Amino acid sequence: MLSSALRTSVAPAGRRAASSIALKYSNAIYSAALKQPPQVLTKVQSELHAISKTVDQVPELKAFITNPTLSAKDRALGLDAILARAEGLSPKKEAASDLTKNLLFILAENGRLAEVPGVIEGFDELVAKYRGELEVLVTSAAPLPKDVATKLETILRQSQAAQQAKSVKVTNKVNPSLLGGFVVDFGDKSIDLSVFSRVNKLNNILQQSVVHAY
User: Fold this and answer.
1) Is the terminal CB of the chain with fewer CB neighbours within 10 Å at N or C?
2) CB distance 122 to 45 below 8 Å
3) Rounded Cα distance, 206 and 203, in Å
């Protein structure tokens, strides 16, 4: 079921942007999970989170999913390693579901393992929308002080989007390249209040001034 959905919905390599390709896989596994008993959706999401954590924690596995030159045998061995480690992270040490396994194998078969992070992110967004959850990601150059985080969360919960959601989850992610300030992402909206963004805008203005001067 998942296999057929993925094979018919994924465009050939190079025809679409990576984010669009990842979203097709996200939609395919989400649709397949919805056709199963309710607990399957939760199980698949838990498994995908374990896979994400596994790839982030093991440099060799991160290199593996971004290497398109591996042989079929090497890809199979790498997938086995990812699944084994991810299964070890589950509370009950259960084997991964067929949906999750098929997703990885088809990504590998299509040379799309590098899309794994985007696929998981897209899946999470679909599940959150299905459950009436609003996930807000606040990315800052350094961890937000508790008082700032609390004030920001209070403001976010007063937004129209938050009022329409059953629950709101605010997560703080650190990205030193922002230099300062923060970026708020929720739904299809993004509010960039970072120093990096302001520096970029200033650089663009200065460059345009130099061009016009000549």
Assistant:
1) C
2) no
3) 5
Comparing C-alpha atoms, which of 13, 41, 44 is closest to residue 107?
13
Distance CA 173, CA 170 (A): 10
The pLDDT of residue 44: 94
Q: End-to-end alpha-carbon separation of the chain, Å?
A: 62
Our separate counts of H helices and E strands in the chain read: 10, 4
For residues 130 and 26, give the distance between their C-alpha atoms in angstroms, rounded to a whole number. Answer: 14
| Separation of alpha carbons 121 and 76, rounded Å | 24
- Residue 29 has which token pair? 């596994």
For tokens 């961890």, what's the residue?
143
Q: Are 90 and 46 in contact (CB under 8 A)?
A: yes
pLDDT at 17 (0 to 100) = 35
Structure tokens at 22: 């990842």
Cα–Cα distance list, 131 to 114, 125, 134, 155, 213 (Å): 28, 10, 9, 22, 55
pLDDT of residue 16: 35
DSSP readout, 82-115?
A: HHHHHHHHSTT-PPPPHHHHHHHHHHHHTT-GGG
